[in-house]
Fold 3-oxoacyl-[acyl-carrier-protein] reductase MabA.
Amino acid sequence: MKKTAIVTGSARGIGAAVAKKLASDGYAVAVLDLDESVCAATVDAIVSAGGQALAVGANVAEEASVVAAVERVATELGAPTILINNAGITRDNLLFKMTVEDWDGVMNVHLRGAFLMSRAVQQHMVDAGFGRIVNLSSTSALGNRGQVNYSAAKAGMQGFTKTLAIELGKFGVTANAIAPGFIETEMTAATAERVGVGFEDFKKAAASQIPVNRVGQPEDIANTASFLASEGAGFVSGQVIYVAGGPKD
Ligand SMILES: NC(=O)c1ccc[n+]([C@@H]2O[C@H](COP(=O)([O-])OP(=O)(O)OC[C@H]3O[C@@H](n4cnc5c(N)ncnc54)[C@H](O)[C@@H]3O)[C@@H](O)[C@H]2O)c1
């Protein structure tokens, strides 16, 4: 029987690429995002390539929404044993201008969201004696001007990941984090707009600082997630893999 994966925030960007890659790896994929209708493009791409996918509307920061979504996936697609906590937002500002709403909003989607999703799927993984949790961190975890909220959340994702690995390892469940550098998505396009630089120039400037001399693409993250989700990655747990075109701390 096919294994089932849930990819949060997979209507677009990195999540969409991860969902498509996992579907091509042979998993049934729940494409979860805020609104079921926005999941259609990812679901259609998977189905037209011969894969299996289900659109699920849910807010990862809301407990009841998460519980209902995971139950629906288990019933309609099969017990989820692969979880990619990818949903994310930015609310950038310098500390002195950052509002409590901007702080809480970022914490809620990344940390509360990853906690609620992981808690909701863990029983399925424990029952199966197999599970893979992959959390999206970021190079911003190492510190990034204008992102005190996001940086704290992404550093938090790393501690969360390591503790999941320790608690769930004996049940056949691994937990790892991917920390992407600059990836070309709507999130980085919005950052360029916020700082008043055209996206092409913004990407060029970023690429000049990256050892492999290019910015990342969502597929770069999807390929790493595919490895971490695989059976063969069962002895890799509690790790943070920087996928940034060069070394990071
Ligand atoms: N793009 C980058 O350079 C980069 C770098 C490092 C880390 N990341 C991380 O990778 C992940 C994906 O980033 P992206 O660039 O594809 O972003 P994106 O903005 O293109 O996509 C994020 C998706 O998450 C969804 N989402 C937001 N809040 C949600 C919620 N409460 N519940 C469910 N879905 C929600 C959005 O609707 C959207 O479809 C994020 O966690 C981000 O922080 C991105």
Observations:
- The helical segments are 13-24, 40-48, 63-76, 100-128, 148-168, 186-195, 199-208, 218-229.
- Residues 8-9, 11-15, 33-34, 59-61, 86-89, 109, 113, 136, 138, 180, 182-183, 185-188 surround nicotinamide-adenine-dinucleotide (CB under 6 Å).
